[in-house]
Amino acid sequence: xxxxxxxxxxxxxxxxxxxxxxxxxxxxxxxxxxxxxxxxxxxxxxxxxxxxxxxxxxxxxxxxxxxxxxxxxxxxxxxxxxxxxxxxxxxxxxxxxxxxxxxxxxxxxxxxxxxxxxxxxxxxxxxxxxxxxxxxxxxxxxxxxxxxxxxxxxxxxxxxxxxxxxxxxxxxxxxxxxxxxxxxxxxxxxxxxxxxxxxxxxxxxxxxxxxxxxxxxxxxxxxxxxxxxxxxxxxxxxxxxxxxxxxxxxxxxxxxxxxxxxxxxxxxxxxxxxxxxxxxxxxxxxxxxxxxxxxxxxxxxxxxxxxxxxxxxxxxxxxxxxxxxxxxxxxxxxxxxxxxxxxxxxxxx
Amino acid sequence: xxxxxxxxxxxxxxxxxxxxxxxxxxxxxxxxxxxxxxxxxxxxxxxxxxxxxxxxxxxxxxxxxxxxxxxxxxxxxxxxxxxxxxxxxxxxxxxxxxxxxxxxxxxxxxxxxxxxxxxxxxxxxxxxxxxxxxxxxxxxxxxxxxxxxxxxxxxxxxxxxxxxxxxxxxxxxxxxxxxxxxxxxxxxxxxxxxxxxxxxxxxxxxxxxxxxxxxxxxxxxxxxxxxxxxxxxxxxxxxxxxxxxxxxxxxxxxxxxxxxxxxxxxxxxxxxxxxxxxxxxxxxxxxxxxxxxxxxxxxxxxxxxxxxxxxxxxxxxxxxxxxxxxxxxxxxxxxxxxxxxxxxxxxxxxxxxxxxxxxxxxxxxxxxxxxxxxxxxxxxxxxxxxxxxxx
Lengths: 349, 391
Description:
The complex is a heterodimer. Chain A is built from ten helices and 15 strands. Chain A is an alpha/beta fold. Chain A has one domain: ANL, N-terminal domain (Rossmann fold, 3-Layer(aba) Sandwich), CATH 3.40.50. In chain A, strands 1, 11, 12, 13, 14 and 15 form a six-stranded mixed β-sheet that branches. Chain B is of the alpha/beta class. Chain B contains 13 helices and 17 strands. The two termini of chain B are 22 Å apart. At the A-B interface, helix 2, strand 1 and strand 14 of A face helix 11 of B.
């Protein structure tokens, strides 16, 4: 399994152990995932993390990349939230899911504290009952489960993403003696359903006395088009919540389940000790020290699918030096998606 | 009414147009001079260069002569067998993210004398409206400029917009480019009983080369045809078939393509293109193809066998050696164009063999993307005319 997952996420890095575990994991995937082995036929081991094999993240939209090792117990399939195009499919397995849950919990506890409190999710519960799979946005919400004393889904079982069940929040706050809650939503839904809404009384007054941790993920693309930035979102959210409230933006991929990269107070994303981040030039694939390039994300958690090392289509930049927030190890800036080239032709898109 | 007589095979056609044909062709041609050096940003260099070459007066005149025959001097109407006149409103539906298809269709249709409506997709740059604006501003004063302002209407709307039905109800000719489902949906809209519909749905194309014909010039043509759209056009070479070649020759030609790429494509690709090439390269390898990335990841080239899954991707060019019967048997159902580089003997022999598989165009490699008044085997341009038989 892994020796690293039990350590503090942002404690001293042990990249020797990480390299050793990633080498072992890569051998495991080469052995039990034939397409992966065909992509890296000559690999037998790496002496540096940057030399380890990786898969382009788009492969998970094209085919079923699964690692069928003896005794694997499959769970549901995670689906990315594609906007009309093909979606990524990641087949979960029991062994990896355990590690991934521990990973997400440790990272989020580091930022939000480990005490349990009501978790309000700006999504609908029916998605949890779908047998075919689990959407990425629900998976992201459920990564907060270890911090929850109870879970409430706030959207109605319709297609509407901006009708919040305000009464449900009120009832839950009345029933809970504490004054500390988490609200999770996709960034755009958090804006549409909460920040840009008028919260009815008496809930409004109640919330102004409640410490709320707003947690969101999913990126800014939709809101950028509407000229909503992180400052506007934060301002609106904090205007309706009590002292000590905060807004936490985290980055994650369905292909890197269990790994979330929240922004620290200084505005950086830190890499836990059981993961690594490399920035590569798209034109040469050479690792870049501090210039912007494609983010490659690695972790030691994924055993049932070779998503332990993925080259993403996200742009990032490693930030040298230590972070004033106190977390050690690597940190990076997320700079957005690779600008899409206009794909022209007469193909039927 | 302007009149011009064309004769083919002893049959003469009097073409009636509401403008002076020679003047209109000359006006288009005159605009070319200004186009050099004034490329609107939305057009790539290759797209703009192709537009300039498309407006060549001889090429535009050839649209008429290929359709109706050689042009007759004078106004003799002796032994006329046919009169062709503009049939009525033409409506054109384009897919999203389309390249020059709209602009080229627009140019051809302005020469028919019909009112024209062109609908572009609501996603992606709309080059048709941009070209129409450019032409409206840069054509010299005259009938053609008036036609563009009064007879041509280019709009951008979605597939659910009510204008789809309005346009279908009024058009005498419907030209629909897009997915098979989109084409079907437009033709299913209520339309005049005597209207005509042309369907340009999903198509794929291939490049067929004989190893002996693969000199550097041929391979350069192949690379240039591939580089324009990658695999995104219906005329893009989805695979390269080495006719009667060996596996060794496929590897050798793949490696020469990699080397020539370095020679001809010095400019760095956009990051998204490089990322797409890496993805395609890994996808092909995962399926068992022997893939290599080109310099700076502008493309990927892969060698494989016929029994491997199709590795199609945006920036991947797959190569395989096949016998001629294997190549014919493995053509896709929706085959449109075969771009060839073969010996004169095979050039004579192959068309009859591939025609029975539904191939619509068998053209030299360099002409794979060339658009014209016959497309997917349909004389759509001729179909916009109303014709009267004379005996």
